[in-house]
Amino acid sequence: MPTVKQLEALRWIAVLGSYEKAAERLNATQSAVTKRIQELEASLGTAVFDRNRRGARLTVKGEAVFALAEELLSLRDQIVAVGSSQAAPIRQLRFGVTELTALTWLPAFVAEIRAAYPNIVLEPEVEQSSDLFQRLRNGTVDFIVVPDSLWQPGFKSVPLASVQNAWMCSPALLHDRGIVPLSELGRFNILTQGNRSGSGLVFGKWLEECGVKFPRLLTSNSLIAMVGLTIAEIGISYLPLRCFGGLIEQGKLRVIETDPPLPPVTYVAMFRGDEAANVINVISNISRATCDFTRPIRWA
């Protein structure tokens, strides 16, 4: 009779493509994972991986076992969730967030997850959205929080909140106080996070839909750097409105009202499609409870 550990080994080898990556995901040695597969094959009386091909490729029967294993493991997670108010214990959590989340509600999320799981090992990464999505695809993180611009088949997205952005500049750069036609901003440098950023993808697509192309784009990989460049009168940028309100109150930034106005950006928690149901439920609930992009960022 196959064991849960054997089926978990089968799942992660098939999903991640190697015994080495599966061992890392399961917090086990590669030899232990190999032994689980050998024992699984012995109990089934058939090979589940094709040793004649490069990489970890399932045999025809292995594909059938994999599909059933996915169903069984999902049911296991649901049964555990019914029997426990906190669902299955999560011992390690590798996750990625963008700079905006790290600056606003990440501390609240960490506090809540540690309160629920005191012994959990957290391994956060702060990167741009495209880099985080690649890590999720490769299985090196368990979930990411990014703008809703990267979804592909095989992944699950849970909406968290929308962020209202505004065009901003130094008060010394633009003195007009009325509503400015969007195309008029092209007189200045436009500071952007580029196509590796989820918000950059959203705004790039929006500008294209508006039929506006700015001649002078300056790209930065850092949100904080964009703020600094904006204050330094280098150009105009699009920034989250609520969390940078302190800089507006201090007179270091001013909001530019445009026609049309900037669209909101929806942020999601994103998981691989094969992630355990209880992990998705726990992380989604805590993320929704703590997500607050309006939290003010304190500046000197």
How many structural domains? 3
SS strand fraction: 15-25%
* CATH architecture group name of the largest domain: 3-Layer(aba) Sandwich
Low-confidence stretches: none
String of helices and strands: HHHHEHHEHEEEEEHEHEHEEEH
Rg is: 23 Å
Category from helices, strands and their pairing: alpha/beta
CATH class of the largest domain: Alpha Beta
Adjacency order of strands in the biggest sheet = 2-1-3-12-4
What is the assigned CATH homologous superfamily of the largest domain?
Periplasmic binding protein-like II
Give a structural overview.
The protein has 300 residues and is α/β, with parallel strands linked by helices. The chain folds into 3 domains: 4-83, Orthogonal Bundle (Arc Repressor Mutant, subunit A); 92-154 and 274-290, D-Maltodextrin-Binding Protein, domain 2 (3-Layer(aba) Sandwich), CATH 3.40.190.10; 165-263, D-Maltodextrin-Binding Protein, domain 2, CATH 3.40.190. The protein has helices at 4-16, 19-25, 30-44, 60-83, 99-103, 106-116, 129-138, 198-210, 223-231, 245-249, 277-290, and strands spanning 92-97, 121-126, 143-147, 155-163, 165-169, 180-181, 190-192, 217-219, 236-240, 254-256, 258-259, 265-272. Helix 1 (4-16) packs across helix 4 and helix 2 crosses helix 3. The longest helix is centred in the N-terminal third of the chain and has 24 residues, at 60-83. The mean pLDDT is 86. Belongs to the LysR transcriptional regulatory family. InterPro entries: LysR_HTH_N (IPR000847), LysR_subst-bd (IPR005119), WH-like_DNA-bd_sf (IPR036388), WH_DNA-bd_sf (IPR036390). Residues 2-59 form the HTH lysR-type domain.
